[in-house]
Amino acid sequence: MDRNLGTTGYVMIPRALLLKAFDEHHEASGDMEAFLRILTYVNYAEAVVRRMNTNVVCARGESVISYNHWAEILGWSLGRTRRYFMRLVAEGSIEQVKGDCASHIRIPGYDVWTGKRQIGKKGDSAVEESFGQFWNEYHETTRMARQNRESALREWKKLSQNERKQALEHIDEYFFHLRDTKFCRQAAKYLADKLFQDEYDN
Questions:
Q1: Are the beta carbons of 164 and 156 closer than 8 angstroms?
Q2: Given the DSSP bridges, would you call strands 105-106 and 62-63 parallel, antiparallel or unpaired?
Q3: Strand, coil or helix: what is 144?
Q4: Phi/psi class of residue 76: alpha, beta or left (left: φ > 0; alpha: ψ in -120 to 50)?
Q5: How many angstroms separate the CA atoms of 143 and 128, rounded?
Q6: For every one of its 202 residues, what pLDDT tens digit does the chain have, with 9 covering 90 and above?
Q7: Tally of CA atoms within 13 A in the half-sphere of 26 that contains its CB
Q8: Model pTM?
Q9: How far apart (Å, rounded) are the C-alpha atoms in residues 200 and 11?
Q10: Degrees (nearest 5) of the Cα angle 7, 12, 13?
Q11: Among 1, 3, 31, 7, which residue's Cα sits nearest to residue 91?
Q12: Residue 169, Cβ neighbours under 10 Å: how many?
């Protein structure tokens, strides 16, 4: 899906109105309407969701809705729904979030799609891209729950280029030197306290 569609302005429509329209027209008429339904149903705020006896942190712009439920939302067969999601992943319109929930997805640039942040601010894309790399690396290394992404992003933006480089490069070192991994900090705290600058004897 072309994210540049978000450059021509926004019309603020209540979510309830969209849901009512979807109820009146059960089947999504095509890919564009299907993507609009996905945008409407993903989380607009971070939440902890229970899936398969596991608490899953579902951030803004993410969803852990099952493919069976998505098929109901789109009014399509399960097979067509799965193929559509696979195509969205292939083209980068959605991302699969690594973890314990197979249906955990994220919409890149969700804030752009929803008008919360305008495209085109100088440096925004580069900063968010580098933060995304850090965010994924930190949680793949530490296996911490992906919580407080917005707070972590705010802390990331406060860092200098060199500090961002250090923060990314020293994740392994920080995690390795923890005496007990239960004391591992969330990403936002790791950045705010500049734990990546800690020095170790060995």
A1: yes
A2: antiparallel
A3: coil
A4: beta
A5: 21
A6: 655 555 566 777 888 888 898 989 889 999 999 999 999 999 988 888 887 777 888 888 999 999 999 999 999 999 999 999 999 988 888 988 877 688 899 998 888 787 765 544 545 667 888 898 899 899 999 988 888 888 899 899 899 888 999 999 999 999 999 989 888 999 999 999 999 988 877 6
A7: 5
A8: 0.58
A9: 53
A10: 125
A11: 1
A12: 12
Contacts 24+ apart (CB under 8 A), 130-139: 130/156, 130/164, 130/168, 131/156, 131/157, 133/168, 134/164, 134/167, 134/168, 134/171, 134/187, 135/187, 136/98, 137/168, 137/171, 138/171, 138/187, 138/190, 139/187
Whole-angstrom distance, CA of residue 105 vs CA of residue 102: 8
Task: Specify burial of residue 55 (Cβ count, 10 A radius: 0-12, 13-18, 19+).
Answer: exposed
Max CA-CA distance within the chain? 66
Q: Which two tokens stand for residue 6?
A: 């978000």
Nearest to 93 by CA among 81, 76, 110, 115: 110
Q: Print burial letters for 20-54: b (CB count within 10 Å at least 16), e (below 16).
A: eebeeeeebeeeebbbbbbbbbbbeebeebebeee
DSSP-H helix ranges across the chain:
15-24, 31-41, 67-74, 78-91, 110-113, 124-142, 149-158, 161-169, 171-176, 187-192
